[in-house]
Amino acid sequence: MTDNSLAEKARSGDRRALARLLTQIENRTPAGEAALKTLYPLAGRAHLVGVTGAPGSGKSTLVAALTGAAREAGRPVAVIAIDPSSPITGGAILGDRVRMQIHATDDDVFIRSMASRGHSGGLAASTVAAAAVMDAAGFGLIFIETVGTGQSEVEVAAIADTTVVVQSPEMGDEVQAIKAGLLEVADIVVVNKSDRPGADRAAAQLRAMLTVGASTDKAALAEGRPRPKRPEVMLCSALNGAGVAELLAALDRRVPDADSRPADGAALKRAEAQISGILALRVAHQLRAPGRAERLEETLRAVASHEIDPYSAADQLLQLLAEGRT
Amino acid sequence: MTDATARPIKVLIAKPGLDGHDRGAKVLARGLRDEGFEVIYTGLRQSPEMVVSAALQEDVDVVGLSILSGAHMTLLPKITAGLHERGMDDVLVTAGGIIPDDDIPQLEQAGVSRVFGPGTTIREVADYIRANVKSRGE
After folding, report:
1. Across the interface, which of B8, B38, B87 has its CB nearest the CB of A16?
2. Which of A9, A24, A42 is the C-terminal boundary of a domain?
C-alpha cells in the first residue's frame, strides 16, 4: 500500500489505514513523511488539548470521562496517550488504555498509545505529527495525555492549544502552588478526585496562590514583561462524573478561532517546537552518515575525555555538516 | 547518540473473558518490556471486539492473550476471526494461561500461532515473538 493511498484512506475514515499511517509517522519512515506532506495542509482545525500532571493524578480516567461527555454530543474524539520508554532497554508499558476501555468499541473514538522513545519533556517526538494526522482524518477534539510529570515537564504547553494540569487533592500545601513550572503553563488546573476529602481546600489554595500578582499583569504586559498564565481552577471527579461536563464546556470556550490560527501564539509555538525537534533529529541523522560517523565518534571521545569542551565540539560538527553541503 | 530509527516490536497483552487473575499477564507485560518491546496493556475483562479494536488502533505486531477461565475455545477464535475481518492477518496471535493440550490443534487451526503453557519463561516468549513476528511490508 503506498503512503498516499494510506493517507487518502485515513482521511476517508478507514481506521486501519489511520493506525498504520500513525506507525509510519511514529517510526519516521520516508513513507510517513511523504504522507504528512499531503495531510498537513488539511490539518489545523482540531482543538489540541494537552493533559498533564503527576503519575496517578487521574489523567487517563479524566480523558476517558471527557471523551464520554464529547461522545454524548456525537463528537469524534482522538487520544494520544504517552507513557515512558525504558532508558535501558527501550521497552515500555503503555497502560493508559486500561482506563479508557469503555470507549474501545466506539469507532469514533481513536486511542493511540505512544512510547516516549527517549524524548524528554513528557511527550514522544512524533506527537505533534501524529496529532496532525488525526486532525486531517477528521477528529476535531484531540487529547494529548503526557507521561506522568513532575514539576517542570512543560513541553506539552508548547504544542497544545489548551493545557490542562491535573492535580489530586493530596498535591501538597500552598508552597507547591507557588513554585514555578508545571502550574504556570496551565490554562486550566483541575483538582481531580473531588469525591475525596480535602479537594475543596486544595482548589481554594490553588486559586488563592495562582492569582497572586494578577492585578499587576496589565501594567507588566504593557511594559513588555512576560507574566504567567492565570488558569481557571476547576473541581472534577473523573470517577463519579462531577464537573466533567463543566470542564468540557470550559475547554470548548477555548477552541482556537480558525481564522486567527496563523497569528495564534499557540500555533506559532507549536510550529517552532516541531521544527526544532526535527532539525535536531536531521542533524543527528546526518552526523551518522558514512564518512561522518567516524568524526562524530572521535568528537564524542574527545569530549568524554575532556580534551575539548562540548560547545566547541558542537561547532566543529556543525562545520563538518556545512562542508558536506558545498 | 543512539539511532532513533530502530523500531521496537509492539505487543498487545489482553485478558479476554471474565476471569480476574491478571498477575500472569502483568508479569509477562513487564518481562517483555525488559526485552525491549513496547507493550500495550489493556487490563481485565475484555470482549473479543475490544481486543480487536485495540489491536487495530494501536497497529500492533503481536496480540498476546492470557486466559484462565476455560472459555478459550469460544473467545480466542472470535478474536482471530475479528482480526481477519478487519484485515489484520499480519498480526501474530499467541495465547497463554490454562489451555489443555487437546485444544491446541483447534486453536492453531483458528489462527492462534502458538499456545504457551504454565512454566514458559519470558525469554521463550520473547524469542518466539522475535523469530515469528511478521513483516509489515514497510
Report:
1. B87
2. A42
